[in-house]
Design brief:
Blueprint: H1 2-24, E1 28-34, E2 37-44, H2 47-52, E3 64-74, E4 77-78, E5 87-92, E6 98-104, E7 112-113, E8 120-127, H3 130-133, E9 142-143
Length: 149
């Protein structure tokens, strides 16, 4: 009986671990370019993926981020509900040009929006300060963005 309970506990623990890994791994990845810099970006292209975003993450590698692909170009806003990391977000038009960049505080409900009247197709979240440290500014291009749907 004790072996059966131990086996059951091990199976439940394995299932919890693989379930967590599956949750973390549900985003595809791509390599973006920002000037001479390469970014390993997870891709949030569905409504469910965009809603989850980087919530509950405790760390993110230095040149990693998440690119959000929106269904249609429009004014877009981001927030930081359940997001533990301080982030910067670049709003990017359909041609890959950065429209504006906003810094965001963790675990807040403040809206951080693209420039009003300038439709964007993408948002790229990176560790806070990444764009500034790399001298990436509005008007510059992000390359290799995921195809538009």
């Amino acid at each position: 009986m004790m072996k059966t309970i131990s086996a059951l506990i091990a199976l439940v623990a394995f299932g919890a671990a693989t379930g967590s890994a599956a949750q973390d791994g549900r985003f595809g990845t791509t390599t973006l370019t920002a000037g001479m810099h390469l970014i390993k970006a997870e891709v949030a292209a569905t409504e469910a993926q965009r809603a989850q975003g980087l919530m509950h993450r405790e760390s993110m590698p230095a040149n990693a981020g998440m690119v959000f692909v929106f269904d249609a170009p429009a004014t877009q806003c981001m927030w930081m509900k359940n997001t533990l990391l301080p982030l910067s977000v670049a709003f990017i038009d359909a041609g890959g040009t950065i429209v504006n960049i906003r810094d965001m505080q963790p675990q807040t409900l403040d809206s951080h929006c693209s420039t009003k009247g300038v439709p964007v197709k993408y948002a790229l979240e990176m560790n806070r300060g990444w764009f500034q440290q790399k001298h990436i500014k509005p008007g510059m291009k992000i390359g290799n963005l995921p195809p538009q749907r």
